[in-house]
Specification:
Elements (H helix, E strand, L loop, with lengths): L25 E5 L5 H8 L3 E6 L3 H11 L20 E4 L8 H9 L14 H12 L3 E7 L9 H13 L3 E8 L9 E8 L33 H16 L8 E2 L12 H4 L4 E2 L12 H7 L12 H10 L3 H16 L14 H5 L3 H12 L8
Parallel strand pairs: 1-2, 1-3, 3-4, 7-8
Antiparallel strand pairs: 4-6, 5-6
Helix pairs in contact: 1-10
Amino acid sequence: MTQRRKTKRRAVGEDAADYSTNRKLQFIDLFCGIGGFRIAFERAGCECAWSSDWDKHSQVTYEANHGEKPHGDIHSVAVADIPKHDILCAGFPCQPFSLAGVSKKLSLGRKHGFQDEKQGNLFFNIAEILDYHQPSAFVLENVKNLKNHDNGHTFDVIYRTLTEALGYTVYHKVIDARSVVPQHRERVFIVGFKPWRDFEFPSFPSEGPKLSSILDDKVDPKYTLSDHLWEYLQGYAAKHRAAGNGFGFGLFTGDGVARTLSARYHKDGAEILISQGKNKTPRRLTPRECARLMGFPSDFKIPVSDTQAYRQFGNSVVVPVIERIAKSTVQALSHPVNIRPVLVLKMNEKARARIPNRTLSLMNYRATGKKQKSNP
């Protein structure tokens, strides 16, 4: 879904960047967590100009892997002090909009969505930065439920703010990471450009890897559930099955694809338990296995406790998904403004054989503007 708007000249802020040189595109890494966006965009040839995250434990992991400590709470930073950049990246906090987060807040009588004063209004910090710095592109990530939250009102506010108020052309799509990692993880991605640029979300493989690709052969016994916890989880699942609910643990073998890894995984590991055979209780994933499950490189450092590591990987983006989107974004920015790439006509040989040569020649001319000689 796209929308084209005329961009109004602003009295305050910065002009859009000039792409006449071969310099590296600069991006900022907001709500950066442990740097999944950063790894992906650096692989796409970009350079990080600035990063920010309020969580002190995530800052430790980020600094250990990227050599710099992110700035703290975004509310404490003046927008003008953020460096000029070409691309704004943000996996803004999803708990106010996720199904699990909303359910928990409702059960506790707390506000959710934009009414969540601590996390729900962070989107408007993004909008303020976009308005001031006028980057040529942005890439945002959030939970799938963002599109349906509050009967679609939340997403409508976000979309209209980005398009009508800020003048960006916006593309959005829900992508399941299971095509690149062994995890069912659906997230909505919102990509915007100003001025308009032709953009297509990248394609993904139809078949993805299995859990065996990320599991260790030998695992410390401390990750095996205690008999007491295993009995509790089985009883909890049975109780909810009897009530017609879907709550319970997820038990997997190496041939399966895991559920979504969440920030609560450190509590009991219930959503992703690994079978160890009939005569042994299952185990949790190790933090290193969680890193692989999220697509982080094998040399990624984990300098924090297991509890913090589980939280950090559960809150992260899937690196290979972001990497593909990053490369598509960079490709779109490499084209001249308002220019559509040449349409290439593709079809399989069976379909081509059923179409007369003269028709094929006409179709090719309409697509490329080049005449093609037809066979007699």
